[in-house]
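Researcher: I'd like a candidate sequence for this fold, 423 residues long. If you have to choose between options at a position, lean toward the conservative one.
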């Protein structure tokens, strides 16, 4: 699809990518040819430009059916949002991802690993490939795995580039968030670490980046990549490594060398519920982000903290995710958000749809406008109340077990990390 140069020139944002323009980010798309858009419309666009990174090509790939990781969550979230009229409109729209090229993948991964990843589906898997983590139940070999991983990483990178170019304020790739992948090793359903590649791209442009990871699993691959650096600070909230893969992410992992004090971890007990989670999140994330004062924020929003996730033991509802995302959004920095884990497919997809609504600046009332649109339209019988989960009741026993452990963790993080940032 192309637009005439003349029509592009009618919008002051003509420097935008054509896809971005066509997708609906620019309200001026409603202008008649030759007619200048109303100044107020483009002012609005400048005030809130939020990009949903997705394209039909991302729907071509899937992990083997026996694997818990579903590539359908992003597409399902998109479908929900489109059916509710929440995907595009003033100040928001969809942008097609560009696959990451070899050079971009090499900013983190090593050549031999990328070769092994590309060749494995053709039946070329040697002992080296096995040592690189390929061919396990969590990192299976499947047709198109290299192409999928490069596309998913490219989608996150596309978001980073939009932010860098000033073409969007917020970008969301629900098909990203592969935070376990190592430079030469696949791990935990992750082959290409899109987060590291995006952060490297931003850092190479001279930007200081703060990464917040709210996946149920510790973001070990990302932490490892930046452990001795202070231009990219990482903060991960996750179920404790005592009860969950990858078994890392404790309070005393704070970075090393130049990076000492620039990695932070908030391991939470199994059974952590919304209120306790948000208490920890509010106590740690906003103060550290404000003190670090990044140019951009990256948020890995894995949905596997949701109660009922088959692989984890957390008890959040998506209301906690909505609040955490709102708190990060309200800091007001350019924001790159990715998906991540989430193994209850429908709950995760609904969670991502809610994340998008929050990123678009809809307040709680607006989000509740979706009430009554659930059920059939949501293609689930789980919950017919719109995008938000029902509140979960916590027992006194659960509170007695979780709350003190969370408090203790927060205190340790304050003691171990806050001093490096004048807090
Ligand atoms: Zn996870």
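Model: Candidate sequence:
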């Amino acid at each position: 699809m192309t637009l005439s140069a003349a029509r592009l020139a009618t919008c002051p944002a003509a420097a935008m990518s054509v896809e971005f323009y066509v997708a609906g980010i620019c309200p001026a798309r409603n202008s008649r040819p030759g007619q200048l858009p109303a100044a107020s419309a483009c002012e609005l666009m400048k005030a809130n430009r939020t990009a949903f990174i997705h394209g039909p090509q991302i729907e071509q790939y899937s992990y083997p059916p026996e694997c818990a990781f579903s590539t359908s969550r992003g597409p399902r979230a998109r479908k929900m949002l489109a059916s509710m009229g929440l995907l595009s409109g003033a100040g928001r729209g969809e942008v097609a991802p560009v696959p990451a090229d070899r050079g971009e993948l090499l900013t983190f991964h090593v050549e031999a690993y990328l070769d092994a990843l590309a060749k494995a589906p053709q039946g070329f898997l040697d002992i080296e490939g096995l040592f690189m983590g390929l061919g396990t139940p969590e990192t299976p070999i499947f047709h198109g795995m290299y192409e999928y991983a490069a596309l998913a990483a490219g989608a996150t990178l596309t978001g980073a580039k939009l932010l860098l170019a000033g073409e969007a304020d917020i970008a969301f790739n629900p098909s990203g968030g592969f935070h376990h992948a190592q430079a030469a090793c696949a791990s935990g359903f992750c082959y290409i670490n899109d987060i590291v590649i995006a952060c490297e791209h931003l850092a190479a442009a001279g930007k200081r980046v703060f990464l917040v990871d709210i996946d149920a699993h510790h973001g070990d691959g990302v932490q490892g990549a930046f452990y001795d650096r202070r231009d990219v600070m990482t903060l991960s909230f996750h179920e404790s490594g005592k009860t969950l893969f990858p078994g890392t992410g404790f309070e005393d992992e704070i970075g090393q060398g130049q990076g000492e004090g620039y990695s932070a971890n908030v391991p939470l007990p199994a059974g952590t519920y919304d209120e306790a989670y948000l208490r920890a999140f509010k106590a740690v994330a906003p103060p550290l982000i404000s003190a670090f004062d990044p140019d951009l924020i990256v948020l890995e929003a894995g949905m596997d903290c949701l109660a009922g996730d088959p692989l984890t033991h957390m008890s959040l509802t998506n209301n906690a995710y909505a609040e955490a995302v709102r708190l990060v959004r309200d800091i007001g920095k350019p924001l790159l958000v990715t998906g991540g884990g989430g193994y209850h497919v429908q709950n995760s997809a609904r969670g991502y749809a809610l994340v998008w609504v929050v990123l678009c600046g809809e307040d709680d009332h607006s989000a509740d406008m979706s009430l009554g649109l659930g059920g059939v339209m949501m293609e689930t019988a789980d919950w017919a109340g719109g995008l938000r989960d029902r509140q979960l009741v916590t027992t006194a026993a659960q509170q007695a077990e979780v709350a003190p452990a969370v408090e203790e963790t927060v205190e340790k993080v304050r003691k171990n990390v806050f001093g490096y940032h004048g807090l």
